[in-house]
């Protein structure tokens, strides 16, 4: 007998695994691309760390033209003459060369030409503040300002640049030595997230909540803005610079002036001169009382405590007093007396707890709106921002007199969509 065999059915290849593989590859590429885009915003050579941060007293631009028995002798004579001229500029008392040698910590060579018996140079002289201050007195010992965040902005070709890329205006501020200034500058390097948090857009914002978050990050109490506009008449030709010193979140103008460089090679010297002029403007504003602290940036400063914080203090004191009274009654030390409630606190009020609340912040307006709405919710005793992410999800810490479920219900009553988690909520509108 012969058995007839039918041909096997054709095998149909399934495209499902291939589709899953392709889908996963596309997702991985999308995630990698998003990560690259995020890194690209903060990576690269954009930072210039302050190179002169000494507290010593520096006098720049001292010109000397001297002679000597040899090149080295001429240089030594030039340095001594620079020390004398710098000391005269500081209006110090008359001292001998040997005494000045003991006060000088460094000689900075800006430009020099050395001949067989002649020395022509432009020098900077750095005096040790601790030793020279004893002779200079008043000016050197004057009190300095509170820490002030400096934002340098340069406009060139219609573009406004702060730390997005390296620029000569940022470099001029990085090379400035604030040792002799009465302004306590907080100068950023521009590396990392500085270019995202502090940019030209930041100088235009009015939100005090946003400013407080930024200033707290860098340990500053207020902000100074240094604007520079560079106009090139033609390639390789003169460059004029218009400089404006501003102060505070409202960008109040303090001073404005114009300088000119003969050619692009002279621009760094012009910018260094502009930095000195701006420092004088900020110092003059401090002396005249114009750099007054902005009360809207100082929560609880100057003896004025935020109402929410004051209420938390009162609740804590009331709870401590009740525990002390109950312990005394339990020990039989005093008869039981009902304590009068602290102002604004009812007897038997529920304890205050801290909850984490995430909230969507597509823009600065949504950030302020969410903070204001949560602060105005009944039972909320205090709100603190722990993370700010404009265009994403920010995080706040909420002190609430009640349970998490009660807080969620109160926020829903304010028009929020609320998602509940473990000791945390996520809200959106």
Cα(first) to Cα(last) distance is 81 Å
Q: Which architecture name of the largest domain does CATH use?
A: 3-Layer(aba) Sandwich
Shape: elongated
Which fold name is given in CATH as the topology of the largest domain? Rossmann fold
SSE sequence, one letter per element: HEHHEEHHEEHEHHHEEEHHEHEEHEE
**Rg from Cα:** 33 Å
If you had to describe this structure to a student in words, what would you say it looks like?
By secondary structure, the chain is an alpha+beta fold. The protein has four domains: 84 residues, Dodecin subunit-like; 152 residues, 3-Layer(aba) Sandwich (Rossmann fold), CATH 3.40.50.10070; 42 residues; 80 residues, Alpha-Beta Plaits. Helix content is 37%, strand content 27%. The protein is built from 13 helices and 14 strands. α6 crosses α10. The N terminus is likely disordered.
Concise summary:
The protein is an alpha+beta fold and 429 residues long.
Q: Which descriptors apply to this entry?
A:
single chain; 429 residues; alpha+beta; Dodecin subunit-like; Rossmann fold; 4 domains; 6-stranded mixed β-sheet; 5-stranded mixed β-sheet; 13 helices; 14 strands; elongated
SSE diagram, text form:
Layout: H1 16-42, E1 57-67, H2 71-89, H3 97-103, E2 104-114, E3 118-127, H4 129-136, H5 138-141, E4 147-156, E5 159-161, H6 168-174, E6 184-186, H7 194-197, H8 200-204, H9 208-218, E7 222-232, E8 239-247, E9 252-261, H10 267-287, H11 307-330, E10 352-361, H12 364-375, E11 380-387, E12 392-401, H13 404-413, E13 417-420, E14 424-428
Parallel strand pairs: 4-6, 4-7, 10-14
Antiparallel strand pairs: 1-3, 2-3, 4-5, 7-8, 8-9, 10-12, 11-12, 13-14
């Amino acid at each position: 007998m012969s058995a007839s065999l039918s041909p096997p059915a054709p095998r149909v290849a399934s495209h499902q695994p291939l589709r899953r593989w392709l889908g996963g590859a596309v997702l991985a590429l999308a995630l990698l691309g998003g990560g690259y885009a995020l890194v690209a915003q903060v990576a690269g050579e954009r930072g210039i760390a302050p190179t002169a941060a000494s507290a010593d007293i520096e006098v720049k631009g001292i010109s000397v033209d001297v002679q000597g028995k040899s090149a080295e002798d001429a240089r030594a004579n030039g340095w001594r003459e620079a020390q004398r001229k710098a000391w005269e500029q500081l209006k110090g008392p008359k001292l001998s060369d040997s005494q000045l040698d003991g006060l000088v910590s460094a000689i900075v060579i800006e430009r020099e030409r050395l001949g067989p018996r002649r020395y022509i140079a432009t020098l900077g002289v750095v005096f040790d503040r601790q030793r020279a201050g004893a002779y200079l007195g008043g000016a050197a010992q004057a009190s300095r300002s509170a820490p002030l965040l400096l934002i340098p902005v340069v406009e060139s070709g219609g573009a406004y640049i702060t730390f997005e890329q390296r620029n000569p205006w940022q470099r001029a501020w990085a090379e400035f030595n604030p040792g002799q200034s009465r302004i306590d500058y907080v100068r950023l390097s521009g590396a990392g997230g500085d270019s995202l948090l502090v940019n030209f857009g930041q100088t235009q914002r009015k939100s005090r909540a946003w400013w407080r978050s930024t200033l707290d990050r860098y340990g500053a109490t207020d902000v100074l803005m240094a604007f520079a506009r560079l106009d090139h008449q033609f390639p390789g030709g003169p460059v004029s610079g218009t400089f404006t010193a501003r102060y505070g979140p409202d960008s109040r103008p303090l001073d404005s002036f114009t300088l000119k460089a003969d050619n692009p090679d002279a621009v760094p010297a012009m910018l260094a001169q502009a930095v000195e002029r701006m420092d004088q403007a900020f110092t003059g504003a401090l002396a005249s009382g114009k750099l007054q602290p902005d009360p809207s940036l100082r929560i609880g400063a100057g003896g004025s405590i935020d109402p929410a914080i004051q209420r938390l203090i009162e609740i804590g004191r009331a709870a401590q007093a009740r525990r002390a009274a109950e312990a005394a009654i339990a020990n039989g030390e005093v008869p039981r007396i009902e304590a009068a409630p602290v102002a604004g606190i009812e007897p038997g009020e529920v304890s205050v707890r801290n909850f984490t609340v995430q909230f969507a912040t597509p823009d600065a307006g949504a950030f302020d709106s969410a903070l204001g709405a949560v602060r105005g919710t009944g039972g909320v005793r205090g709100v603190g921002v722990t993370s700010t992410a404009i265009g994403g999800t920010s995080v706040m810490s909420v002190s609430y007199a009640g349970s998490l479920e009660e807080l969620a219900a109160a926020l829903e009553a304010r028009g929020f969509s609320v998602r509940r988690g473990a000791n945390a909520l996520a809200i959106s509108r």
